[in-house]
Amino acid sequence: MDFSILAQTAGASPGAAGQTIVPVDLIWKHIITLDLIEALTFISFGSVCLLYGWRVFKILVVICFGLIGLILGMTVTGQIVGLNNQLAGGLIGMGVLAVLSVPMMKWGVSLLGAAAGAIMAAAIWYACNLPEQFIWTGALTGLVAGGMISFIIFKVSIMLFTSLGGSILVSAGSMALLYLYERTAPQIQEFVFEKKWFLPIAIIVPTIIGVILQNKFCKDSKDWEI
């Protein structure tokens, strides 16, 4: 790839270079809607995924694909003329993908590992303040790298996607808790919107810690099998 062309393209269109692609407003809107109980639930469930995801990864795979099926089912139903019951379509999609994920568990884990690699690479791209309109480049690189690692070292893909999922839940719950208190609410909101490195760091650092700890726990557990 000729990176000089990429640089020239970014420099030739300063308006495009400042284009906002990452939906920070939408992410923050969902975070601040969490109440105290929901935030604590996010942190608790996220901590389990972060530290012991390797123990419950099969359940997490089924849940992830069930949610994907729910979204796809509602989207497809909404696009088909004459079908107005999006909930029914979402439930059908959720059931289909959740059931299919059981016999195709290793493929499901590999796909989630590749997706986790894409998210982390895109987060690094965003944290480095690179042009957002090319963030798909970083995501694609992470997708390929995560997919290769997932197919070569299966255990790593389990630790990667469970740690990332747990990290997102813990970070979202923690930020929601900080926003609930008047003293910390302005500071956390300023960090989210003014410091581009904040959200990626809040996700990547716990993910790395989770992978390291899960690897240690996995080695110490002799009875664990995939």
Task: Please state roughly what percent of the residues sit in beta strands, choosing from under 5%, 5-15%, 15-25%, 25-35%, 35-45% or over 45%.
Answer: under 5%
Oligomer: single chain
The major sheet is characterized as:
none
Count of helical segments? 11
Structural class: mainly alpha
**Residue-averaged pLDDT:** 84
General shape:
globular
List the secondary-structure elements in sequence, H or E: HHHHHHHHHHH
Distance between the termini: 38 Å
Give a count of the beta strands, DSSP E runs of length 2 or more.
0
Q: From the alpha-carbon coordinates, what is the Rg to the nearest angstrom?
A: 19 Å
DSSP helix fraction: over 70%
Low-confidence stretches: 1-17
Task: Draw up the topology in text.
Blueprint: H1 3-12, H2 14-17, H3 24-32, H4 36-52, H5 57-79, H6 86-101, H7 105-127, H8 135-152, H9 154-180, H10 185-194, H11 198-220
Helix pairs in contact: 4-9, 5-6, 5-7, 7-8, 7-9, 7-11, 8-9, 9-10, 9-11
